[in-house]
Design brief:
Two copies of one chain form a homodimer.
Chain A (H helix, E strand, L loop, with lengths): L6 E7 L9 E4 L3 E10 L5 E9 L6 E4 L1 E4 L4 E7 L4 E11 L1 H14 L6 H16 L3 H12 L7 H8 L2 H10 L6 E2 L3 E6 L6 E5 L15 H6 L1 H7 L3 E4 L47 H13 L3 E6 L2 E2 L4 H5 L15 E3 L2 E3 L3 E2 L7 H17 L4 E5 L6 H14 L4 E5 L4 H9 L4 E3 L8 H13 L8 E4 L8 H21 L2 E5 L36 H13 L10 E2 L7 E7 L6 E7 L6 E6 L2 H4 L7 E5 L5 E4 L2 E6 L6 E7 L2
Parallel strand pairs in A: 2-10, 11-12, 11-22, 12-13, 13-18, 18-19, 19-20, 20-21, 21-22
Antiparallel strand pairs in A: 1-3, 3-7, 4-5, 4-8, 6-7, 8-9, 8-10, 14-17, 15-16, 23-24, 24-25, 25-30, 26-29, 27-28, 27-30
Helix pairs in contact in A: 1-2, 1-4, 2-3, 3-5, 10-11, 14-15
Chain lengths: 648, 648
């Protein structure tokens, strides 16, 4: 920044927390840069946007546009094409040439006759520019100089100096004497799957026909077509490692395990190995690799759980006792949240004196699974480990594997969930799971898309998890499941379901609890895949998501008027309006609801007063719509319309 | 900041533009500092606010309070007591002691019996603290240590370690091993008049009984009691310097002055001197000093115009031709805004090669008037001069005269007006003058008080100026004047009127223009001070402003419900609620209006459902009010209530 500035560049966006953290984009997204740029006189200024990827050899630039003169509001746009870090700056300067032409133009048009002085000024200015010009540029400026000689006619001169080619050359070559450059801001670009994907959580040990026999990766591999047919892009696997014996939890989280109880996959480690091993009853590492490879061939990625918990039987307990917390008598502490004790889990001490050893070991666990084909990690409770560890380990992994995606499973307070996103997690679980009413949904989505969260927080709208069966799902019947699926899949580009959701599983362990009865966390669950389900709806919705780019980004959701609080109505469209969806979802799982919904035609680029067709992508039906439209949604059928605007 | 952090301090306020500019306060105001502070485990943390004035020898600290646990939202408060720069930081650390006591407490309360290990941990911790303790602190810790020896009873230990005095000493003396300190932020503190004051603009040459004879400072001095009786704190004088002859403007801005035409005071400089001289027809420098002194004795400050314009006859034109813009033929340029020419004004070239000479000379002009008793400058069109000049000159003046107040007269685009406030202007003219409807007023006041503008932008709500007679005043009759006065004086702690306002002067030079007919800018204006006026209302309103601290700050305005768009209803109160005002103003200058207004009792600390008295400070009448109240305002009387809440 030059010290004595005439020009100021303020309110630059996207910038997260004053630039302390990078804003995020995914490959193929545009980065719309906005700023307030002005100077302390009426001289004309120009601005350009400069950006560079960490693998680019040179900067790229594009002129910015003054889109609101009264607010000195400028915009510029560039498309990110590669994974990695980008930086961008804004440069602004006075356009001396255009300022002079404008003044001459005003005076000529005011009928002033003696403009010899103005022409002489222009002559001096263009001579200066001309001195540095070459070839055709020089020839063009020669023409301008000729009309500015003493005695020239001002009208002739004006016609020449305001010619497009003359202006172009002069503005390009003129000195940027008072140029000002903004601070440099960062952008972190990940692959598209960080933003858009449909997730399915399953326990591999449940991929069996008998509750007393663990499913294996071999069996799970045979059932991959089930997930593919539903249209999912990602399978999330809870931990697949050997499970501890000491204080193993029994069915329904009972303190004493019965013989044959399989234990919680989150109590990791026994004599067969720790975080880099496979639970033997699931098969071998090669079985896992084969599973991953087959899934990948089907277009499905495998997301592995990364839970930094150790059972008392984990190899690290003996190899690295210093990685754990110790009591004064030297014994190792188990997890506690008084009055609760978790004697099957030893928490890790990240502040251990052997921090380097510990952190490297954890990094190597991740790298091990990356080598086995894992491309996504769902990180268990990251907020109970140091933020700085995550910042470090994600950067380390991304050094050689920038395509790895990290999902933060932190159901915590907003500042904590936000910070994890800022320091590097690609995605985060969200509060969507508990936002049921229209007001709640609109408020939460507005925060996610209209505040600075939109620049760094990519929510993954899970409808349920192995821990969370919401009251709405417990008591709303099959329609509730459809409603939550439709909301999740159309509000957020990334969403997920935990298996059993498709079969409307809705029995909680106790009233007021969100845990499942006979939770799959503690036992093998055999599901009859032929029982009544919402397979068709899920498959259809996932197909619609793939076919409609408007559903593949988050920030574009806009809520529109609906005069019934039980019907939420919103639009999503691509920036070029080539894909416009209007979505109405009934939030009432019990009764039919009707509403008049208002389509803001101007926002959609539809001429005022004109009519257009909308096609319901769920049913194929076509309606002729205008500004105000009637919507009727019956929970016994499909409680939503996903309407694609078809221009007439 | 320590590198490996467990604790994060985010979203600190008040911070302007990421700390690039200081936030502003006035002496006696509290500075409420807010931040999001959290760490990556459930350990208890503490935070304190540290601040220091530039003349303080040491930092002061005060503990911050966690006011919203779910949002990790902390607050701390300190009162600024001196003019000048303050800095503040936030420090946060883990309270190891309190964390340990909480864990012990939970386990004891869960009925756990074997807590030897927990007591042993406490013993180690307190021994460490004890090592650095002295005197009574040490004795108190001795008591705690005694209850933690091997074999101690956990209940007894808990009772002792959670005793208030033990906790206090332990928390004070424990090491802050993981302490984190925020960035340092700045606060610029000015005297109270920068925030609160009632202004009156007058032309000293009009303080006469005859339009053909200039008023003098001696006569103006005699009429000071007129302004004092109206209750004003500040008199703003347009430029008082010698007026140029060349191209002098005649009455009503005519291009040719008649003999005897006095010219515009903003065309500064002739053979009698420039910016540091007094127009001889006004009297001598000593007359001016006497005027200032007498005003000061009455409690009135003098604000002088600082207009960096030179007439072609200004001494600087000959002494420093290089301070002006030149045409190629060497002549000096006058001001132009094609097609308009201002041949009576030579603009200054701030980028002159003799910049140091020019900038110093301008500084010296200000210092000269400060020495003559001027304490406030109303700066004319600061946005047409370099921002960096203002930043520099205000800092220079404040070095030795930190009590000088600068008012920016920039009716420009929002970013420019905001920047001038950020870089140092104490006050700014505002868009209030053109905000007439309820929506417009509420929206503008919300921007001024609820966005970051509240931290740096102090608006001066002038109802009119010598250049601005709004359509609302031109056509609304006397009631319109009362309405605008009441709004200005109760919405903003600083407001002003330009003389003539009190006499309802409302004739514009032409339809659609905001300039006055026979503008005082170009002629001497004799006013009959005994003609019908709103003297009494102005005096009463200014008295109410002095007596009610709630009217002396800006940020406390809150808009409440009124079911009539023609009646605006708002509240202002002091933080301790000792002074609560409810203000209803009719915006209709023609017809009586009625409304039901709703008082949000909870915000005012009035118990739900209870009734209370309100006294109209304008009339003395007392009403018994509840939550919903009927208001009737007749423009023929006083179109407002200023109601003071009197508790029952």
């Amino acid at each position: 920044m030059t010290k004595e500035r005439h020009i100021f560049i303020e309110n630059v966006n996207p910038v997260v927390a004053c630039g302390r953290y990078p804003a995020k984009r995914t490959v193929g997204e545009e980065c719309l840069v906005e700023a307030t740029i002005f100077r302390d006189s009426a001289d004309i200024i120009r601005a350009e946007l400069c950006w560079q990827g960490d693998s680019d050899t040179h900067k790229q630039t594009i002129p910015m546009t003054l889109v609101n003169r009264g607010l000195d509001f400028w915009q510029g746009n560039f498309k990110v094409t590669d994974i990695g870090c980008f930086t961008f700056t804004i440069e602004a300067w006075t356009d001396i040439y255009a300022t002079w032409v404008r003044e001459l133009d005003r005076k000529v048009n005011a009928g002033r006759v003696d403009l010899a002085s103005e022409l002489a000024e222009g002559l001096m200015l263009i001579e200066k520019i001309h001195a540095g010009a070459k070839g055709n540029d020089r020839a063009i400026l020669d023409g301008a100089l000729a009309t500015l000689q003493p005695g020239s006619d001002a009208n002739t001169a004006l016609a020449m100096v305001s010619r497009h080619d003359v202006e172009q050359v002069a503005e390009k070559l003129q000195p940027r004497e008072d140029a000002v450059v903004s601070d440099e801001y960062r952008l972190y670009v990940e692959r598209k799957r960080a933003l858009f994907g449909s997730w399915y959580e399953l326990f591999p040990r449940s991929q069996t026909d008998a509750a007393d026999r663990s499913g294996t990766f071999k069996e799970a591999e045979k059932r991959l077509d089930y997930v593919r047919d539903l249209g999912f892009d990602v399978i999330y696997l809870p931990p697949i490692h050997p499970i501890g014996h000491t204080a193993r939890k029994g069915k329904n989280n009972s303190l004493v395990a019965e013989p044959g109880d399989v234990g919680s996959p989150w109590a990791i480690g026994n004599e067969n190995g720790g975080h880099d091993a496979i639970e033997p009853s699931l098969g071998t590492l090669n079985d896992f690799k084969s599973y991953v490879k087959t899934a990948n061939k089907m277009g499905i990625e495998i997301a592995l759980d990364f839970a930094i918990n150790c059972s008392p039987d984990h190899p690290w307990v003996k190899q690295h006792p210093d990685w754990f917390y110790h009591r004064p008598d030297g014994t190792i502490k188990y997890s506690e949240n008084p009055p609760k004790k978790y004697e099957d889990i030893y928490p890790i001490n990240f502040d251990t004196s052997d921090k380097e050893g510990l952190w490297e070991a954890l990094k190597n666990v991740l790298l091990h699974w990356v080598e086995c084909g894992v491309t996504i990690f769902r990180v268990d409770n990251p907020h109970t480990k140091p933020f700085v560890f995550w910042e470090w380990v994600i950067k380390e992994i991304h050094k050689k594997n920038p395509d790895v995606i990290f999902l933060a499973e932190a159901f915590s307070r907003p500042p904590i969930m936000k910070l994890l996103a800022k320091i590097g997690f690609s995605q985060s679980y969200s509060y969507f799971t508990w936002r049921n009413s229209k007001d709640e949904l609109q408020e939460y989505l507005t925060e996610l898309t209209q505040t600075d969260m939109a620049e760094y927080y990519r929510p993954n709208f899970f409808t349920n998890t192995q821990d969370i069966l919401t009251e709405y799902l417990q008591h709303g019947g099959p329609s509730a499941f459809k409603i939550r699926l439709l909301l999740a899949a159309t509000l957020s580009p990334t969403y997920g379901i935990y298996s059993g959701f498709e079969f409307f599983e809705n029995v909680a362990v106790a009233p007021g609890k969100e845990e499942y009865l006979n939770s799959e966390k503690y036992e093998i669950k055999v599901r009859d895949l032929t029982q009544p389900s919402m397979h068709d709806l899920i498959a259809r919705v996932n197909q619609i998501r793939r076919e409609n780019p408007a559903l593949q980004v988050l920030r574009n959701v806009q809520f529109f008027e609906s005069d019934n609080d039980q019907i939420i109505f919103y639009g999503k469209m691509t920036p070029d309006r080539s894909n416009i969806l209007l979505i109405a979802v009934s939030l009432d799982p019990f009764q039919a609801q009707a509403s008049t919904v208002r389509v803001p035609l101007d926002k959609l680029g539809i001429p005022w007063g004109s009519r257009y067709n909308v096609r319901d992508l769920l049913t194929g039906e076509v309606y002729n719509w205008g500004e105000h439209n009637y919507v009727y949604l019956n929970p016994m059928g499909t409680p939503a319309h996903i309407l694609k605007v078809e221009r007439l």
